[in-house]
Amino acid sequence: MSTRQQQWSSKLGFLYATAGSAIGLGAIWKFPYIAGTSGGGAFFVLFLVFTLLIGVPLLIGEYVLGRHSQADAVTTFKKLAPTSTFRFTGWLGVVTCFLILSFYSVIGGWSILYLGSSLSGQLHSLDADGYAQRFGELIASPYLAIGAQAIFLALAAGIVSKGVQKGIEKASKWMIPILFILLLILAGYSLTLEGAQEGLRFLFSPNWSTVSNDVVLFALGQSFFALSLGVSIMITLSSYASKQQDLPLSAMTLGGMNILVAMLAGVMIFPGVFTFQLEPTEGPTLIFAAVPTIFSQIPYGQVLVVLFFILFFFAALSTAFSLLEIVIAAFIKKDASKRRQVSWIVALLVLIMGIPSTLSFGLMSEFYLFGMPFFDLIDYTVSNILMPIGALFISVFLLVKVPKSVLKKEFRQGSMFGRKLFVVWYSMMVLVVPVAITVVLIDQLFGLNVLSILGVIF
Questions:
Q1: Would residue 172 count as lying in a domain?
Q2: CATH number (domain holding residue 40)
Q3: Which segments cross the bilayer (predicted)?
Q4: Among 7, 449, 1, 2, residue whose Cα is nearest residue 236
Q5: What are the pLDDT digits (tens) for 107-119?
Q6: Is residue 4 domain-resident?
Q7: pLDDT in tens, 204-255
Q8: DSSP 8-state secondary structure symbol assigned to residue 372
Q9: 3-state DSSP helix/strand/coil % of the chain, to nearest 5
Q10: Count of domains forming the chain
Q11: What whole-number distance in Å separates Cα of residue 235 and Cα of residue 205?
């Protein structure tokens, strides 16, 4: 395999870049609202189990595949399986990332609108109803919402167009530490609220009566979504990794970071939700309704609101980097001269695709397709169908198309514990990962009782 023209400048740079993808909006925006609509504690336990038993092993597999191929996702599968159905797996990932970014950029636009409102003082002295009304006005305005979405995509494209080291890695190195610091500060403040104990109980005390087949599916989908799995993002990012990178350690570190950030996001949100009697089942707008209400009630609250939406903007932007990169890399291959032009073209196409999702909260709020608003339809399709299918294809591909000797070599190279862990990892990939994904997908497609089947497996 040929070597990439661009690489991460260091092991830490690789970790920051992958962390930007994995611990962005998936953990900070999506985890709290999915947990809120899925019963809290039981969902969290399922998310934790799926992340450790399926997510991290599959993440290692994507890392191994990417570094071995030293190519973009599309080229990787075409080279290793030129006549197989698997050759389309890379394109499935590209299309899925494109769709994710089409609705993620809507959330990124919201972060810009709310950050602007908080900095200008427009959120000062509002009560809970006032915040909800203000947020509704912002996202319902087609000019404001689409304009903010366009600004968000322009910022992301501008950074990614500069390349791997000068763009993505450089931005991630200072954004990710700031994101962690702000998240710790805000979670700490939430623990001082009167409803902290009730909020923590909701998040960490499982009520198994709330578990349904949908909750299991959502937990699996969230474990994929939060680690950017099943869409070949990590294959693309790891293709820039050096042979000295400890892939198993990097994957376990990233999995741990992701769980920690999800926990902190929940701790930041749910104490305030119960203190001020908000609804944890609010859905995608939970953070925008809850956070200003929570922090406006405590000392220095307006400062904290500004800090939160800076945090949120950083999380959104760091996620957008990797989503853009996989699409761009698929089209430029190794020709860096095309990067700038392709970056702006892709951003424009994403904006056009994302307009119906943007308008789902305004002009198209009464337009439903398959019983869902367009925004929810894209989110559901990506998280619960396309990502699990992609994850299944990748896991099976690793086992049937890549020689075990190659997997062993890449797994062990640069790793402190590679020799001891390879057998464990390979066994998980054979016995657990594809089986569990298949069971949940069959349930989704044919309505089988996934709970009883998973009970037998685990």
A1: yes
A2: 1.20.1740.10
A3: 12-29, 41-65, 86-113, 143-164, 176-196, 216-237, 249-274, 303-332, 344-365, 377-400, 421-442
A4: 7
A5: 889 888 888 877 7
A6: no
A7: 998 888 888 778 878 887 888 778 788 888 888 888 888 888 888 888 988 8
A8: E
A9: 80, 0, 20
A10: 1
A11: 36
